[in-house]
Amino acid sequence: MTSAKPTALYGRMFGGALVEEAKCLPHPFAITVFEDSLYWTDWHTKSINSANKFTGKNQEIIRNKLHFPMDIHTLHPQRQPAGGKNRCGTNNGGCSHLCLPSNKTYTCACPTGFKKVDHYNCANGLDKFLLFARRTDIRRISFDTEDMSDDVIPLADVRNAVALDWDAKDGYIYWTDVTTDSINRALWNGSKQEVVVDTSLESPAGLAIDWVTSKLYWTDAGTDRIEVSNADGSMRTVLIWENLDRPRDIVIDPIGGFMYWTDWGANPKIERAGMDASSRIVIISSNLTWPNGLAIDYETKRLYWADAGMKTIEFGNFDGSDRQVLIGTQLPHPFGLTVHKDKLYWTDWQSKSIQSADKLTGLGRHTLAENLENLMDIHMFHRHRETVRNPCEVNNGGCSHLCLLAPAPKASSCACPTGINLQTDGKTCTPGMSSFLIFARRTDIRMVSLDIPYFADVVLAVNSSMKNTIAIGVDPKEGKVYWSDSTLKKISRSNINGSAQEDIMSTGLMTTDGLAVDAVGRKIYWTDTGTNRIEVANLDGSMRKVLVWQNLDSPRAIALYHEMGYMYWTDWGEHAKLERSAMDGSDRVVLISNNLGWPNGLAIDMAGSQLLWADAHTERIEASDLNGQNRRTLVTPVQHPYGLTLLGSYIYWTDWQSRSIQRADKNTGANTITVRANLPGLMDIQAVDRERPLGFNKCGRRNGGCTHLCLPRPNGTSCACPTGILLKGDSRSCDDSPETYLLFSNRVSVRRISLDTNDHTDVHVPVPELHNVISLDYDSVDGKIYYTDVTLDVIRRANLDGSDMETVISQGLKTTDGLAVDWVARNMYWTDTGRNTIEVARLEGTSRKVLVNNSLDEPRAIAVFPSKGFLFWTDWGHIAKIERSHLDGSDRKVLINTDLGWPNGLTLDYDTRRIFWVDAHLDRIESSDLNGKLRQVLVSPVSHPFALTQQDRWIYWTDWQTKSIQRVDKHTGRNKETVLANVEGLMDIIVVSPHRQTGTNLCGVNNGGCTHLCFAKTNSFVCACPDEPDGRPCSTISGYIPTSPARGTSSTPVPNKIPKAPTDTPHRGPSLVNCTDKNLNVEGCLNTVVTAPHGEGLHISYVIGGVLTILAILILIAALIIYRHKKSKFADPGVSNLTYSNPSYRTSTQEVKIETSQKPPIYNQLRYKKEGGVDGGYTKEKIRIVEGVCLLSNDELYWDDLKQIKPSRGGLHTCMRTDTVSLQASSASLDDGETEQLLQEEASECSSITTLTPSAITPQRHAQHSLPDTGWASIRKPSTESEV
Predict the structure, then answer these.
(1) Where in this protein does the record put region Disordered (predicted)?
(2) Which residues contact 497 (CB under 8 A, 6 or more apart)?
(3) 313, 357, 569, 907: which could join 558 in a potential S-S bond, CB 3.0 to 4.6 Å?
(4) What are the beta bridge partners of residue 914?
(5) Is the pTM of this model over 0.90?
(6) Which DSSP helix (H) or strand (E) runs through 1283?
(7) Which residues of 14-47 are buried (b: 16+ CB within 10 A; e: fewer)?
């Protein structure tokens, strides 16, 4: 054992004397033994120590710097030696519960409190036990055994249990928790624990079970109410809400039909009423201070109570008569009280004990348990309660909802759930609330009925979680409630009873602050502070349209006047204002723009023809006429009003600061009262009267003649189309989709922006299962969108409306950054940065073939020019370049390889025959002709462009840093505009237009006569076979069809199989025959020619001659290029050495320094391959940049790393062709002043230098460096993106 007080360690041998082994230990706590050593923990030294177990010597510290080390054990088989005899045997000694072995035999034992029925068996349950609460646990003392030990009932999350009761019929115990504000239950053994009631409770201090009709009664000292529900918490209703002041305990008498409760408010009293709240009277009102516990003795028909202020336990008759003090001494602070048989039991806070006495005389006092902190309620659980016949047991007493016991002669009465009235028959409840307030409280929605004489809030029982519910609206016609959640970014709806919950809008929302339901026109309108838009849709979310998108700065509340065709809204931006427009967004006018701060709530008083609004900044509720005139203040001051609504002659508003709902007269602002208090998180509020007529629907007759949206106006109606779609010339009908639009991806969504309309609003294309979409293209022939997903490593396609999604390539992909569709030949091309390949396949994913797999370092964007037969792509590896080849990968040519950084996006202008690309490192957009000539910078600087596309006179691009889509004039680079802002994770962008994919080539008809792949060239075409046979005979000769494969050859297709690399590896074993001009006569090829429909089948001699001619021309061209390249290399010293110390992505003399700054966590999670040198340094290692990782991950951390690019990139600048060796500093080691001075000096040096010798730009080795040797001098323009 250890003893912390004398600071020594002792050992006792079995049956021996106490031997002191080690002294001077500061605070030993736990001890264990293993072999010859003793181990112990010490609190003071925060260590684990050891010593010789025989002598106490050889002390040493095993482990230190431990925070309060506790118990310690040695885990080893020696500590639990085998071989001992198990005296309990294999069947637990025949014991039903515990088998306890002794030195010779064993004994059967029972759990605490359980009675032993014979030598081997225990009772299956407890028959009688004292149940009591101790705030953080609930315990029991069994009366089935004599030891009277208390035992904790195993319950979870008991925070502050106060009141208790029990029901032996189902074996449940019930308790209230005033910390979690809930009522809970569980079986007597702790199983089947559940929350019964957990809403609209503030301090539930009393609890009573009607075991006859299975009802739950409770008092709430916070709300000052007495409520009842079924035992499972359903059909809850308020019984008493008036003249209560801190009600405490409650007991019920189902035999007499009465309930009794104590009230220890300003005027302490004990009251009685029928269990249906009838016949309420005060029975005791004098000589009371803190009347706490109550108990009923059904045998003597007495009511007992304990008063902690008077320090007495008293009793009287059920009517309060014959009052007597039972115990008046030695009662410091009695709290809980119960009666069973001839005993009275109570808990006492001050003496921390449970005591009992004779219920008739108060004598024979006995302490059952002591030294128990925080004692609360107490009850005796037993299984012998009296059976009572009652009128509710037959057909629920004829009640539709609650049947409550009542005093004679009535015996019972019917009741309805909170807020619902009982009909005139006295049995049936109305279907629901007809007049009510409904309000949002962030995590729930609640209703307060105006049909009943008290205000009680009821939670809308929606079967879904709410995170931040803000705006709310009601459709009284169908009885549905609509709400917005700014965290989930959804608009949802359900029935008013909480059933049939569904999301009607889950895309394109940010912060929906205002919401209004047009129950007449069957539309929903909403404001969005995040997107600064006002939109409308059908009530099911279809046909969504942006109505207002300009000159909005935080629109909030919105209100509709359907009969007049107007909508009103508040805007609490920099210049707060209150505006009005027609319900189709036209005829917009500012009504009020002065003396406004935070105009939150907004309501229309149609009867009084006035507009009302609440301003949280000016702390006023104001009113004006419907034109903004005759402005006046209704209520002031109000602390922080948010939601505002109107019904009848009253206005209602929510207040953030007072956490309450207030009411006042709508005309005078007088008679302000608090409807409900203690409600944190209050947001929007609406008042609803379902009995009020809705009014005339202007669009009700044949939808106003409109094919899509019919929207009211002051002088009639107007037809409208969903966002981005133009109304046809008949002013009534719409197309199904825009004619020309941008299509872009942002990882988890694909969206479109119509170019037919001016609002430039993004609309989500409902493509399912998007994880990390990078690249896009489309096929105008079949109306399909194609996209790559680098999380799933697939290429998929779907209809342009998002339907019919299917996977076309599912294997052999690593990081597919670029995708292009050849709409003529029906092929698709893609770049794979992970495998450094460019591949092609048919649009359905068949006939897959590697076209380019050498001299690729980081291929990214790719584009096709089918009518010219060209394929273009960018490569942003060590030597950044833009290349071109024919569509079959032949005639490969580097178009541009100078002055490039990170060429991300690439697009073609088919009209002007120019290439456009974005450079995210040099921050610019450039263009050239199809041969890489006539190069010009279109826009500079741009922040961090990723992808671009072209339509008409505009170039559009996505930008990571500004999180926007922008455009400029493609000819001048001017007229820069932001098309869409505030979009995270922007990736690819394309234009879908009937004028975009035009032209044809020789593969356009009958696939050029090819069996598999047809690749167009400038004035010809070639046929090709897939890398893996697919079961069909393949020919590379147009018009030649091979025969079926030889017997035994497999013809099973191998879809999406990874192509072999290199691609020229011969296929061994039996295979299909690929018929070419060299093996035309091989068995399996036919000697007949199938002529292509338009004469593209050529004679074999012409083919051979043409091929030889082309080869000769190519050899001459190659020789000329090599000669000119060598000549220019010696002529231009500026490009004589490529000083790529990685990663620079430049072809200038500028060198790269790997910074000493700490790398972010993303560095260790790069998924791109690395080429590491043997020395483990950076000499040969190629580190891929953050941008690449961002393509693979959705983690915001990676985006945060990338956000640092621009501030750090601007820290230092160097000359493109100047000696930068003298610049021995980086932005990480300079402050702003030093950096500015260095920039000025460098600028002067740059302006003075005109020529350089090759030796001046030769990279120098450094013998000493604080970083691993990169092999090059470490001077460059710093860029966080490449550093990591």
Answers:
(1) 1045-1070, 1253-1284
(2) 432, 461
(3) 569
(4) 909, 929
(5) no
(6) helix 1280-1283
(7) eeeeeeebbeebeebbbbbeeeebbbbbbbebbb
- pLDDT value of position 389: 87
DSSP label at residue 1244: H
Which of 914, 925, 932 shows the shortest CA–CA distance to 974?
925
- Render pLDDT for 95-122 as a digit per residue (tens, 0 to 9): 999 999 988 889 999 999 999 999 999 9
Hey, is 702 helix, strand or coil?
helix
46 alpha-carbon distance from chain centroid: 42
* Poorest-pLDDT segment among 384-388, 624-628, 804-808, 1245-1249: 1245-1249
Token representation of residue 930 = 């199809």
Token digits of residue 344? 């009275």
3-state DSSP call for residue 656?
coil
Question: Residue 1096: what pLDDT?
Answer: 40
- 1215, 1246 contact by CB (below 8 A): yes
- Gap between the Cα atoms of 1078 and 1085, Å rounded: 11
Sign of the dihedral defined by the CA atoms of residues 661, 662, 667, 669, in that order: negative
- pLDDT tens digits, residue range 416-456? 999 999 999 999 999 889 999 999 998 999 999 999 988 98
Q: How far apart (Å, rounded) are the C-alpha atoms in residues 515 and 602?
A: 11
State how far the Cα of 904 lies from the Cα of 914, in Å rounded to an integer: 17
Share of the chain above pLDDT 90, in %: 67
Contact residues for 74 (Cβ-Cβ < 8 A; gap 6+): 32, 33, 34, 39
In one-letter notation, the amino acid at residue 588 is R
Q: What's the DSSP call for residue 257?
A: T
- What distance in Å separates the CA atoms of residue 1233 and residue 18, rounded to the nearest whole number? 76
CB 1080 within 8 A of CB 1103: no
**Encoded tokens for 240:** 């008493």
Segment 488-494 long-range contacts (CB within 8 Å, at least 24 positions apart): 491/515, 491/524, 491/526, 491/541, 492/464, 493/539, 494/460, 494/462
Query: What SS3 state is found at 460?
Result: coil
| CA 370 to each of CA 143, 339, 340, 355: distance values in angstroms, whole numbers, following the listed order | 17, 19, 20, 9
Give the total residue count for the chain: 1284
Dihedral sign from CA coordinates of 370, 373, 375, 381:
negative
β-pairing, 936-939 with 924-929? antiparallel
The vertex-900 CA angle with 894 and 905, nearest 5°, equals 85
Backbone angles phi, psi at 181, to 5 degrees: 50, 60
Q: Give CA–CA dist 901/924, Å, rounded.
A: 10
What's the rounded Cα separation, in Å, for the pair 743 and 800?
Answer: 10
Which residues are CB-contacts of 1142 (< 8 A; sequence separation ≥ 6)?
878, 1152, 1178, 1181, 1182, 1183, 1270
Is-contact 1284 1164, C-beta < 8 A? no
Distance from C-alpha of 822 to C-alpha of 419, rounded to nearest angstrom = 65
Pair of tokens at residue 445: 């929605």
